[in-house]
């Protein structure tokens, strides 16, 4: 097992390098950039790049933004700006260096977990990520727990009652729920219960109320879940469908095996057969997939929900960073989450061996 883990860890290096290299290359050919963003803001052609114009290179040179010059620039909208000012911007954002030098310099910093500062926010990238983390952790954790809490009992009952009216109508409900886009359901919930056209029962912004600090411990817990109710309902609608059907199929496969018939022939009750013999084998793939399911719920599908309910999490941070061409935030989040995804994939595989020692990855190709 040690050799398998070592091989997987070593494979993470070229995988992570490939992800970063492809992403960096795509960005080089993408129109626009932080320099163009600043120029557009200065000349009144655009804005919204953030709260900060200068990056980690300091604020020098911004006082010269109104200086006129006759030099030409390769940047759209830069006519009339001092070429020295444009050069200062390039140096400030690091674009005075060749792409390869910037790329390998970035990788060297990331290997030391030095992610620098945001271009347009006066804060380090890691602090910015940690600031937005509670929202995404809250959504990912509760979505995973709730969906597993619904899916596993429902899937087991559907397997036991395979082909019954209960199995048929619950399958219809699951399929319909899976087909409804989460953001449309979120809008429906907002209209119905968040002060739209009917009831004003739930808040529409943030994870806590303005008087959070004044509340008691119980009041804080109630307030927290009060704010989470509608976002979680929107995300969990489709989250439990796949796990439910996977649980049902896993139990059906195990129930039809010979050892189950033998256990029944020995006089064991159906409950003893189901939970004493079938459960462990059937739940192998479900439990082992829990880390991956959490990460998936953590980072995917939350952007629109965060936007609709004004939740300032990692999904919204990544979207705004791409729009603002805030490359330190874009590449740092990509690096961190790619590394986390690779580690979680390894953890999921090791979970298989923990649940079922018969599985031996040493005898399989990586």
Keywords:
67% helix, 366 residues, single chain, mainly alpha
How would you describe this structure to a colleague?
By secondary structure, the chain is mainly α. It has 15 helices and no strands. Helix 1 packs antiparallel against helix 15. The radius of gyration is 26 Å and the shape is globular. It starts with a helix and ends in an 11-residue tail after the last helix. The relative contact order is 0.13. The model is unreliable at 47-71 (pLDDT under 50).
Give average pLDDT, whole number.
77
Instruction: Indicate the overall shape.
Output: globular
**End-to-end C-alpha gap:** 12 Å
Structural class: mainly alpha
Query: What's the helix count?
Result: 15
Order of helices and strands: HHHHHHHHHHHHHHH
Low-confidence stretches: 47-71
Strand proportion: under 5%
Number of strands: 0
Largest sheet properties = none
Helix content: 55-70%
Radius of gyration: 26 Å
Structure summary:
The protein has 366 residues and is mainly alpha-helical.
Tell me the layout of helices and strands:
Layout: H1 2-29, H2 34-42, H3 83-93, H4 99-111, H5 125-160, H6 165-179, H7 182-193, H8 217-255, H9 258-265, H10 270-282, H11 284-288, H12 290-299, H13 303-308, H14 314-323, H15 327-355
